[in-house]
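Weekly sync, protein design subgroup
Attendees: M.S., D.O., the rotation student, P.L. (late)

Item 1: inverse folding check
M.S. brought a backbone from last month's batch and wanted to see whether the design step gives back something sensible before we order anything. D.O. pointed out we never logged the input encoding, so this time it goes straight into the notes. Structure tokens as presented (604 positions):
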């Protein structure tokens, strides 16, 4: 079912029943871009991965949101589904305030076009939305407006001290409008008078002049068919009629604001339902859902996990699930289309979920990949097939439901693309400390290829190379025991530089000071920074002799060392020289006195 702003109110009302009745919900999004920032690497930590994703993707939009509700018939032991394909686009600015801006990537736009995406439908009929903080601000503003208008008795634009002189070039126009209003009041049967369009300043003058010259006249601004603003004059009714009209107007403004919240209502329904939410490689989906419809993505990784856990307490990523056993050894590719094909063949037995109603679903052979509703449907089918296989393998049950304890190991773990040794974010648990003492950061000439890096590390066995840019890469050893030997063997040279992974992460933390401000960092601070990166009790440590390599400028340090030595020598001389002189004087006096006493004792 395609959903635009034209049929969204009816679908929203329908979802109030469909979502609570579902066994689980599958989602998918199509975006205006994926990542404009720093690329992720094979050895990013989950926190660093999130930081890159937040900086590189938060300015893109979800423009199509797929939701597929899977319903289970207990009597028939059969699944059905209802799929929805929402076109989502922000509403142009009006009295609500600021205009929304977003970014797009050419590759992503071309990809959507090639897969049949209808941008005319998006821009013309896209469903608007507001974040909760935006909605709160606008509701407070609207309440203040209603309080002010309820206390006003007429359309007066201010007191006598606020009168604006009518400019000479506008006087004729104003007089003509006032004459037309006067004639309108003298006629019977005509309820309204539509005046010509004019700019904001002239409208303000008209409100002022009508208020001063006429009684029993209402002047209001409306939008014409083409979007221009026009003035409409009408007769005031009785006090009761005017009060009712004001109530109706205020109610219409509240309803208009509710309409502007739009698609955000769907996200709130999903959150409040507590239903299991299924996605495929869904981290970016979750990030953009939160940033676009809920609240701004926080800088703090821990705060992000808390927000996700609060909004969506039960998540399952089929990308992560297919990466784990018993599926990992049976699945050659986890791309959604390939995964569906693999799961439709032995040893798997695919489950069917027919549309619950005509026009509300897909068939497994529809082949509408990259349409958000269809991708959500396929994701749900893959989940059902894997769950069935898991049940038969572990319990001999043909079908497991979403509440089965066998699914617990897969809950709230979102897959991280390209990360080698810890490819998921754990939403409700702390990530383990990763033993990466076998990983090194290597810098080398631009001319080097992968073969050259492998050749450098060839004495230490097989390696994995993860390129960062044209002149650097991470290299991990298959034989971890060789890590210490690498540190003792591959020292810095004029051609390349090899440093441990943890030290490279440390050096990335603070911004390097300028040469004029560059001083030797204290070892206490360096160890503190290392603890912040590795944590206490981390597996693997940097050898003590390597800590000296963290000092960026050896020439500056030698200069400081020599200066400190001279200073200490000066202080020693300054403090000990008076004592030395006093001691020598005391010894001389003592020698003279001793000689004299000794002479007298001999009878001299």
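Designed sequence read out in the meeting:
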């Amino acid at each position: 079912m395609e959903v635009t702003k034209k049929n969204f109110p009816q679908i929203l009302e329908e979802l109030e029943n469909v979502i609570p009745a579902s066994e689980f919900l599958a989602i998918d999004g199509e975006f205006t871009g994926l990542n404009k920032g720093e690329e992720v690497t094979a050895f990013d930590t989950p926190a660093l991965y999130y930081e890159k994703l937040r900086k590189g993707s938060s300015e893109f939009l979800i423009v199509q949101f797929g939701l597929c509700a899977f319903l289970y018939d207990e009597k028939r032991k059969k699944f059905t589904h209802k799929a929805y394909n929402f076109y989502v686009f922000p509403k142009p600015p009006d009295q609500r305030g600021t205009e929304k801006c977003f970014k797009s990537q050419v590759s992503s736009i071309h990809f959507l076009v090639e897969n049949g995406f209808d941008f005319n439908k998006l821009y013309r009929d896209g469903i608007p939305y507001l974040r909760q903080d935006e909605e709160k601000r606008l509701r407070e503003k609207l309440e203040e407006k209603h309080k002010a208008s309820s206390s006003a008795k007429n359309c007066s634009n201010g007191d006598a001290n606020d009168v604006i002189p009518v400019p000479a070039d506008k006087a004729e126009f104003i007089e003509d409008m006032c004459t037309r209003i006067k004639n309108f009041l003298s006629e019977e049967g005509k309820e309204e008078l539509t005046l010509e369009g004019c700019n904001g300043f002239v409208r303000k003058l008209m409100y002022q002049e009508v208020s001063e010259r006429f009684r029993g006249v209402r002047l209001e601004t409306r939008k014409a068919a083409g979007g221009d603003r026009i003035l409409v004059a009408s007769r005031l009714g009785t006090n009761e009629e005017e009060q009712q009209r004001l109530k109706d107007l205020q109610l219409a403004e509240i309803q208009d604001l509710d309409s502007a919240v739009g698609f955000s209502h769907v996200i709130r329904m999903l959150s409040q339902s507590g239903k299991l939410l299924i996605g495929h490689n869904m981290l970016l989906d979750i990030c953009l859902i939160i940033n676009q419809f809920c609240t701004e993505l926080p800088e703090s990784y821990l705060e992000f996990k808390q927000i996700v856990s609060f909004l969506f307490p039960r998540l399952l990523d089929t990308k992560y699930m297919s990466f784990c056993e018993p599926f990992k050894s049976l699945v050659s590719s986890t791309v959604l289309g390939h995964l569906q094909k693999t799961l439709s063949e032995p040893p798997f037995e695919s489950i069917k979920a027919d549309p619950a109603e005509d026009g509300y679903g897909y068939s497994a052979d529809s082949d509408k990949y990259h349409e958000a509703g269809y991708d959500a449907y396929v994701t749900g089918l893959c989940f059902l097939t894997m769950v069935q296989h898991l049940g038969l393998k572990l319990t001999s049950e043909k079908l497991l439901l979403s509440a089965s304890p066998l699914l617990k190991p897969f809950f709230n773990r979102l897959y991280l693309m390209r990360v080698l040794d810890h490819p998921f974010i754990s939403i409700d648990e702390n990530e383990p400390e990763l033993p990466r003492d076998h990983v090194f950061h290597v810098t080398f000439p631009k001319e080097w290829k992968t073969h050259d890096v492998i050749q450098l590390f060839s004495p230490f066995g097989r390696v994995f190379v993860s390129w960062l840019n044209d002149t650097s890469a991470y290299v991990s050893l298959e034989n971890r025991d060789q890590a210490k030997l690498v540190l003792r063997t591959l020292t810095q040279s004029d051609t390349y530089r090899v440093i441990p992974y943890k030290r490279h992460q440390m050096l990335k933390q603070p911004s390097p000071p300028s040469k004029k401000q560059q001083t030797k960092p204290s070892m206490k601070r360096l160890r503190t920074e290392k603890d912040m990166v590795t944590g206490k009790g981390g597996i693997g440590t940097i050898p003590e002799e390597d800590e000296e390599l963290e000092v960026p400028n050896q020439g500056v340090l030698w200069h400081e060392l020599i200066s400190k030595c001279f200073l200490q020598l000066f202080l020693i001389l300054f403090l000990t020289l008076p004592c030395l002189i006093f001691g020598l004087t005391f010894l001389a006096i003592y020698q003279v006195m001793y000689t004299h006493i000794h002479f007298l004792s001999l009878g001299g």
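Discussion: Residues 153-160, 515-567, 598-602 have pLDDT under 50 and may be disordered. The first helix runs from residue 8 to 21.
Action: P.L. to compare against the previous round before Friday.
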